[in-house]
């Protein structure tokens, strides 16, 4: 079984359903629009901001503020790409055609990751450039230290959110179940753990909190034990674990 | 050639397929017959390497499916016509399957033409009727021009013209020397399509023989005997007398008795000696459908509640003593039909 055949087939599958275009465009639009809105509000409120906040102000990170909502669409994209195979029953046709389940699984993840990364890259640059334009005098430039890393990192962060969702969806199979686990995980568990001081240290190691470190340029006065790439590495480990879990279950389970 | 040896599949403590051994030979249509829930689909999934057997094994052309090189070029299957992404159009659905196994894209147009879906190739499958879905599933099975074909209930939802088309397609595929394995719960359909039958119920093999042998072995004649419906005493007396005379007596659903093993004049004599009057004594031949019902009786998992004990108890059925059973009820696919000769429909396949 030539891997190229499976890749080509997965590419046909992913671009022949409208959910791909919908979820990815929503991710882009929501992230950029919310980022611009929050950047604009920040500029308007600048006068009332305490001096301490002005000194540690991170214009790059502020322009990515829309990511927290935009990643929702990325999660939906990742979940749908994998779980519609199961919810439609297409998985039997696919696995009958590709009995080597590892090849099938890797191809599907790889083919879905490419458009997710491309859209994430556009989203990250658009969020940054438009956000900075709105911030006016308080803006950062791409050439500033750490900024380019943060923007590219933002794209990688969004992509990994989709990849993590694919792994979880492969384990859980049902789209409703996968979304029902992932949404509370990112929107309830992570913020709650991060808000309570006792669990803050644990919350830091959750994929979204660790991964979003790479989008910060100004990090004065925090005691996070890992750097930007360390944080992204932790997120990548979460993704690897989810993908491995998905693979082991796919290999062992009856289709 | 498909060969199953001691094939067994258990889910927890439920045994779906139980020590099943059979062969499906090339050049003929083999019907895979059994009531709903008897393990047909599980067996088919095991043949395709989708489910792993708990015990035993099954091979296609001598190898387990998952170790066949480029399996889709050798084996084509229709498992579930609804197993398509409704948001994808028919052409690209088939294209993605073709690409998986390196089948050239022009085959997609060929099979769409063959199943008569060319005109709707660009439409999303969401809007397809059940019959169109079946045709799409058959198209997918034929993509790789395979030597071995598996169809799970291919005539479901097809109109009479579609049923005839599938029947002829199966026969022509077999005539080309291919191995064709078709499952169905309709004996009447299999009687017209298949050359060979593999009959299972509750996961166990009941028969593995040619259709001709099946008819010869199972469509034995019987007599219908009816006594006055004044009370159960007459019926019980006649049943006892006939049994003593060496007959097998089974109560029919409508209160009549089905007697095998004695010629009609002898039944009349026995009734006379037992001082039982007869309202009916008529010769019958069991239809193929009925033979199949008898064979699988008591082995059906999901049955309508009209008479859960049919054929298993001698007591009369209340409210069913008024002659021919006119209405087996809509939800009663497995009730015997009391008509006489030839294959009869217990369930309208349309």
TrEMBL record, chain A:
Domain of life where this protein originates: Bacteria
Keyword Protein transport: no
Statement: the UniProt record of this protein carries the keyword Membrane: yes
Keyword annotations from UniProtKB, A to Z: Membrane, Transmembrane, Transmembrane helix
Membrane-spanning intervals of the chain: 21-41, 61-82, 103-130, 150-170, 177-198, 229-250
PANTHER family assigned: INTEGRAL MEMBRANE PROTEIN-RELATED, MEMBRANE PROTEIN
Protein name listed in UniProt: ABC transporter permease subunit
Organism taxonomic ancestry: Bacteria, Bacillati, Actinomycetota, Actinomycetes, Kitasatosporales
Automatic annotation (TrEMBL), chain B:
Keyword terms of this UniProt record: ATP-binding, Nucleotide-binding, Transport
Transmembrane segments: none
A Pfam family: ABC_tran
Domain of life, per lineage: Bacteria
Chain positions covered by the region annotation Disordered: 305-350
PROSITE patterns assigned: ABC_TRANSPORTER_2
A molecular function GO annotation: ATP binding
InterPro entries in UniProt: AAA+_ATPase, ABC_transporter-like_ATP-bd, P-loop_NTPase
Domain ABC transporter: 2-227
SMART domains reported in the protein's UniProt record: AAA
Family classification: Belongs to the ABC transporter superfamily.
The protein, known as: ABC transporter ATP-binding protein
Source organism (scientific name): Streptomyces fragilis
């Amino acid at each position: 079984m030539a891997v190229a055949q499976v890749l080509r087939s997965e590419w046909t599958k992913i671009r022949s359903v409208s959910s791909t275009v919908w979820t990815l465009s929503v991710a882009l639009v929501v992230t950029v629009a919310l980022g611009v809105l929050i950047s604009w509000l920040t500029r308007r409120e600048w006068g009332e901001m305490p001096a301490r906040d002005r000194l540690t102000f991170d214009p790059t990170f502020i322009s990515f503020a829309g990511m927290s909502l935009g990643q929702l669409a990325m999660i939906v994209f990742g979940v749908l790409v994998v779980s519609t195979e199961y919810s439609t029953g297409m998985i039997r046709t696919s696995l009958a055609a590709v009995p080597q389940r590892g090849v099938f699984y890797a191809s599907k993840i790889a083919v879905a990751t490419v458009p997710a990364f491309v859209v994430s890259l556009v989203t990250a640059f658009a969020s940054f450039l438009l956000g900075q334009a709105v911030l006016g005098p308080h803006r950062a430039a791409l050439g500033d230290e750490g900024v380019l890393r943060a923007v590219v990192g933002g794209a990688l962060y969004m992509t990994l959110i989709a990849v993590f969702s694919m792994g979880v969806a492969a384990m859980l199979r049902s789209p409703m179940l996968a979304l029902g686990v992932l949404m509370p995980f990112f929107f309830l568990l992570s913020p709650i753990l991060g808000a309570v001081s006792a669990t803050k240290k644990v919350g830091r190691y959750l994929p979204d909190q660790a991964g979003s470190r790479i989008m910060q340029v100004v990090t004065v006065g925090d005691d996070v034990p890992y750097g930007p790439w360390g944080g992204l590495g932790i997120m990548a480990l979460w993704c690897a674990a989810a993908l491995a879990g998905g693979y082991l279950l796919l290999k062992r389970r009856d289709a | 050639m498909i060969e199953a040896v001691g094939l067994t599949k258990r889910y927890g403590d439920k045994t779906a397929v139980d020590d099943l051994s059979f062969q499906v030979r090339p050049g003929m249509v083999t019907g895979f017959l059994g009531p709903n829930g008897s393990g047909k689909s599980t067996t088919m999934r095991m043949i395709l390497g989708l489910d792993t057997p708990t015990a035993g094994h099954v091979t296609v052309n001598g190898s387990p499916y998952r170790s066949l090189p480029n399996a889709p070029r050798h084996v084509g299957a229709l498992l579930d016509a609804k197993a398509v992404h409704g948001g994808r159009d028919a052409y690209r659905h088939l294209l993605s399957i073709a690409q998986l196994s390196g089948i050239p894209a022009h085959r997609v147009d060929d099979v769409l033409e063959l199943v008569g879906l060319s005109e709707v190739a660009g439409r999303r499958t969401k809007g397809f009727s059940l019959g169109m879905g079946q045709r799409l599933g058959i198209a997918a099975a034929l993509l790789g021009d395979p030597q071995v074909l598996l169809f799970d209930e291919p005539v479901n939802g097809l109109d009479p013209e579609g049923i005839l088309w599938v029947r002829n397609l199966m026969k022509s595929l077999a005539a080309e020397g291919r191995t064709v394995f078709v499952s169905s719960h309709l004996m009447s359909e299999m009687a017209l399509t298949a050359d060979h039958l593999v009959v299972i119920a509750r996961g166990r093999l009941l028969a593995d023989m040619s259709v001709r042998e099946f008819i010869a072995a199972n469509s034995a004649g019987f007599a219908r005997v009816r006594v006055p419906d004044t009370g159960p005493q007459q019926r019980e007396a006649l049943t006892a007398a006939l049994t003593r005379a060496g007959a097998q007596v089974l109560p029919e659903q409508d209160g009549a008795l089905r007697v095998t093993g004695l010629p009609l004049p002898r039944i009349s004599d026995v009734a006379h000696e037992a001082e039982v009057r007869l309202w009916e004594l008529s010769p019958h031949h069991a239809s193929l459908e009925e033979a199949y019902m008898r064979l699988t009786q008591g082995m059906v998992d999901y049955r309508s509640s009209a008479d859960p004990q049919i054929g298993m108890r001698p007591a009369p059925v209340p409210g069913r003593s008024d002659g021919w059973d006119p209405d087996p009820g809509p939800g009663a696919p497995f009730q015997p039909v009391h008509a006489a000769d030839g294959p009869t429909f217990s369930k309208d396949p349309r």
